[in-house]
Amino acid sequence: MTSSPSGIHHPELAAGRWGELTLAAQLANVGSEVGRMLGWRQRNERLMDRAFERALELLDLTLADPRWRGRLREIARAREMLCDAATGGHEYDTTLEWLDRYFLDFAVAERNRIEQERHGAGSRINGGRGD
Amino acid sequence: MATLIVRDPIPLAELRRLAAGGFGDFVKAVVDVEAKVMAVGGELHADQETMLLEEGSQQHNIWGINIYPDLPAAERLEFDSMINVRPSQGNRSRSVESEVIRHRIETIVSSLVRE
Question: Based on the structure, what is the number of domains in chain A?
Fold first, then answer.
């Protein structure tokens, strides 16, 4: 098995695609990686570490997104808690299970937004206000 | 990272190649359980989902997975994608909660990927 050849897991997202997503979609994608960390935790440490790297990369792309200036405190806190959970939760008692549930809410919000859009009902969470 | 729609069987080596050009260990895929096709490659399941919808797939038939080409066949599929979160369809997690649908996905992927 190989790791990402460029050292960046998401080159297209880093090149700008990430900036087209709503905040809810961005955090939902982070949550997918947290879910993978959980899934691999007991079975494959290397794959868990890779998911952790991807989660951090996506959170860093989110923190760098100029649209969220002024709203970065919670995202930065989430990053801190992810690092805590990945290293045993010694600082804040954070667990991956808790983070998984936290990020899942954003996936639900994003899906609801998409379904509303597709049904022509407009969007309650637009412009990345999906928190 | 290239995305392609798989309608006819491809070798597992092709998935390895796609994985090596992207996440390394796995490749993202979205499977249409009715049309029995899948989109593979790319960085977001949402992009593959859009590609299949534009090809005529119905939302309720498509599910996101990850394929780990180097793992044993029994461990190769990971049912985990934010596009699977569909409360209106009774699927409230990123997994595919229906065992019947999971089995259909496994059958389709094994028919589309040659060892």
Answer: 1
Query: Which string of b and e fits A65-81 if b means at least 16 CB within 10 Å?
Result: beebeeeeeebeebbeb
Q: Is the ipTM of this complex over 0.85?
A: no
Q: Does the CB of A17 have a partner CB in chain B at under 8 Å?
A: yes
Interacting residues of B112 by C-beta distance below 8 A, sequence separation 6+? B6, B8, B9, B10, B36, B37, B38
- List pLDDT tens digits, range B10-21: 999 999 999 998
Q: Which domain holds residue A53?
A: 11-105
Residues shown for chain B: 115
Chain A interface disruption, residue of B23, B62, B65, B85, most A CBs within 10 A: B85
Q: Strand B37-41 vs strand B27-32: parallel, antiparallel, or unpaired?
A: antiparallel
Cβ separation of B85 and A11 shorter than 8 Å? no
In a domain, A85, yes or no: yes
- Each residue's pLDDT expressed in tens, for chain A with a length of 131 residues: 444 545 678 888 888 899 999 999 999 999 999 999 999 999 999 999 999 999 999 999 999 999 999 889 899 999 999 999 998 888 888 999 999 999 999 999 999 898 888 887 544 444 433 33
- The answer to whether B58 contacts chain A (CB < 8 Å) is no
A6 inside 8 A of chain B by CB: no
Q: In terms of DSSP H, where are the helices of chain A?
A: 11-14, 23-41, 45-63, 72-86, 96-118
The CB density around residue A48, as the number of other CB atoms within 10 Å, is 19
Residue A121: inside a domain, yes or no? no
Give the predicted TM-score (pTM) of the model.
Answer: 0.85
